Amino acid sequence: MKAKMINVLIVIGIFTGFMISGAAVPAKVQAASRDFIVAVQKIPPVMEPMRVNSNVHMRILYNVGESLLKIDYKHGLKIVPSLAAEWKRLDDKTIEFKLRRGVKFHNGEEMTSADVAFTFGEERFFHKKRGWTLAQMYLGNINPPKVIDRYTVQISSKRTDFLLEKRLASYMSEIISKKAFLAAKDWETWSRNIVCTGPYKLVEIKSGDYIRLEAFDQYWGAKAPVRSITFKSIPEVAARVAGLKTGEYQIITEVPPDQLKSIDSYQGISSVGGPIPNIRAVQIDTTNEVLKSKEIRQAMAMAIDRQLIVDSLYHGRTNVPNGFQVKMSGDMWIEDYAGLRYDPKKAKELIRKSGYKGETIHYRVQPDYYTLEVATAEILVEMWKAVGLNVKMDMADNWSQVLKNDEPRHLVNMSHSAFYSDPEGILWRRLGPKSPFRFKNIYGGKAPFCDVPKEFDEWGQIMLTTTDLKTRRNAVRHMLEIVDSEAFLISLHTLPMFYGIRDEVNWEPYPAEYMDLTAANLSFK
Predict the structure, then answer these.
(1) What is the rounded distance in angstroms from the CA atom of residue 385 to the CA atom of residue 317?
(2) Which residues lie below 8 Å from residue 446, measured CB to CB, with a gap of 6+?
(3) pTM for this structure?
(4) Which residues pair with 521 in a beta bridge?
(5) How far is Cα 154 from Cα 363, in angstroms, rounded to an integer?
(6) CB of 335 closer than 8 Å to CB of 494
């Protein structure tokens, strides 16, 4: 009870500093403005699908790039046709795709099987200094595609893969123009000037300021509902809310829960959104001297009152996951798995047992890249302090600084998306052997980010190679137990994404990081 009261005071003391006050006078806006502005907390530096793995990248890319298949977020996450008009399984490793004819890239060239083969080929996807590093988490099981004719292509996997359709409908499977890629001066130039097939084309990236898209007149499907979209970087929540009220912005992202009531009470605007299949977590660098101690890592996990954070900081508008898994996994969600427990007394015992001598543990955080990231981090620091851990929060400007493997780096803030409805989409993708956290030199250092026991990979192989539901569920349970026991990743809460929106805008947020601003999901009253 005493620990609970301490944590309540921590929350109250910190959270009062995050209230936003003041109101702006709304200005008249046209109901169907042809130039659309979305105020975001941050923009990505490049738009190449296989170079960036971030929430801020995904929300924009969805409107520019398209995959062979698509996930229908409005109808039960069904797989539907996109750039492929039809497809069929040839065997348990191979899918044949019949491409949609007449699809144009943003450079005016027609999309053919050659572009699909190039997208997932040696010069880009399998190139060790280009796509492979990040993309293999998503599609590392595939072989280079086989072109059958101009509009027919086959994609196969190295092993039996009953999730192949879902992979090819998900992030980093966007098809690019071979001609445009080869014409680019270099990888960096291409990354800032990608050429895809979506209803909007990328026209400008102004680093740290905005990314501008324009409607693509030759788009094969329903035309874009606005002439242009500008994703404007506005780091301060107060400035985003003020701009929404005046009509300067039509949508704003990353609205803290304490601002939702205020937005809903203001004439002309409202709030939308909620939890998505993404788990906010603290990733632990197990390669340093302090956190090699399993007892210290376990103590850090047990010191956190997750439900208190959800209830007090997020106003109960999200939830605490039971382990590193999401309900979207359907039959593969282990409902009766307990997950991490809050036990500050046990945490103190583990710290004493570890021989910890008060060494500083450095915790890298960005300034509210995630909703209430700084407030949450400050609460965590105080909860760790309450059990005897000396944690210091270090602010970083970007992901390169957060993840760079230099000293001192002990803890980093992360989120982990479930890109398709199976544990492989989050549990294996983020912690399996092809995860960047297990590579050497991936973030500029000489060691992997975390050491994962071989038993995790052994159970993972069982999960990947069997179709028996009971066997797969048993494997996943063991993998979850290893994650929580070894405590190299500490799950916090399900990531919520809240938006503010002008009343003249008809737009629906998906249970994902994507912002669909196409004709399928954006119109005006």
Answers:
(1) 27
(2) 405, 440
(3) 0.85
(4) none
(5) 46
(6) no
